[in-house]
């Protein structure tokens, strides 16, 4: 089937219509292929029988489809981190290159990043009243490196 034929088919299905509508007016359709150019997926509609997980599956490709790249990357990082404990070498995952028309990226990106947090805001949303030094100690208990940046800001 062509991309247009697949869209037409799923536009007639009550459950799949909302997903088909996401890409129906696109000038191109998203296709995920493997190194041998076999189609694995046409997100958000179909996955191929070729890439179906079976009892003897050894390699798992985790694909996240979203309309927001930041949210997709967060979801991907969570899934990869969770699945990685079952790898032959636990907590090791292979990165891939995603090639777009105008750019390419290596993913997943599991590097750490620093974020500043306002102590008053954190206290308010958590319903607590803790001093910055106590918050640093609590963040460290959660495995998050943190330090007091100034009297009302932490770097986590």
SSE blueprint:
Elements: H1 3-11, H2 17-23, E1 32-33, E2 39-42, E3 46-47, H3 69-83, E4 96-99, E5 104-107, E6 116-118, H4 119-126, H5 132-141, E7 147-150, E8 153-155
Antiparallel strand pairs: 1-2, 2-3, 4-5, 6-8, 7-8
Gross CATH architecture of the largest domain: 3-Layer(bba) Sandwich
Number of domains: 2
Shape: elongated
* Uncertain residue ranges: none
The strands making up the biggest β-sheet line up spatially as 1-2-3
Termini, distance in Å? 50 Å
Secondary structure: number of strands: 8
Helix content: 25-40%
CATH superfamily heading of the largest domain: Phenylalanyl-trna Synthetase, Chain B, domain 3
Main sheet overview: 3 strands, antiparallel
Q: Which CATH C-level class of the largest domain is it?
A: Alpha Beta
Number of helices: 5
Here the CATH topology of the largest domain equals Phenylalanyl-tRNA Synthetase, Chain B, domain 3
Give the oligomer, counting copies of the same chain as homo and different chains as hetero: single chain
* Beta-strand share of residues: 15-25%
Q: SSE string, helix = H, strand = E?
A: HHEEEHEEEHHEE
Report the mean per-residue pLDDT as an integer: 90
| Radius of gyration, in angstroms, nearest whole number | 21 Å
Structural class: alpha+beta
Descriptive notes:
This protein is an alpha+beta fold. It folds into 2 domains: 105 residues, 3-Layer(bba) Sandwich (Phenylalanyl-tRNA Synthetase, Chain B, domain 3), CATH 3.50.40; 40 residues, no CATH class. The chain contains 5 helices and 8 strands. It has a 3-stranded antiparallel sheet, with no helix packed on it. It has a 3-stranded antiparallel sheet with strand order 6-8-7. It has a two-stranded antiparallel ribbon with strand order 4-5. Strand 1 and strand 2 form a beta hairpin. It is elongated and about 60 Å long. The N and C termini lie far apart (50 Å). 5% of the residues are buried. The model has no long low-confidence stretch (mean pLDDT 90).
């Amino acid at each position: 089937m062509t991309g247009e034929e697949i869209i037409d088919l799923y536009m007639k299905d009550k459950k799949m219509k909302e997903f088909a509508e996401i890409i129906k007016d696109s000038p191109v359709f998203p296709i995920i292929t493997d190194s041998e150019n076999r189609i694995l997926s046409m997100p958000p509609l179909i996955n191929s029988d070729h890439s179906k997980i079976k009892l003897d599956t050894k390699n798992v490709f985790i694909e996240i489809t979203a309309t927001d790249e930041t949210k997709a990357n967060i979801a991907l990082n969570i899934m990869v981190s969770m699945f990685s404990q079952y790898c032959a070498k636990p907590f090791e995952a292979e990165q891939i290159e995603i090639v777009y028309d105008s750019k390419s990226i290596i993913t997943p990106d599991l590097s750490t990043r620093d974020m500043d947090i306002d102590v008053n805001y954190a206290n308010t949303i958590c319903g607590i009243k803790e001093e910055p030094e106590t918050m640093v100690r609590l963040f460290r208990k959660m495995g998050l490196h943190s330090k007091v940046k100034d009297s009302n800001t932490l770097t986590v």
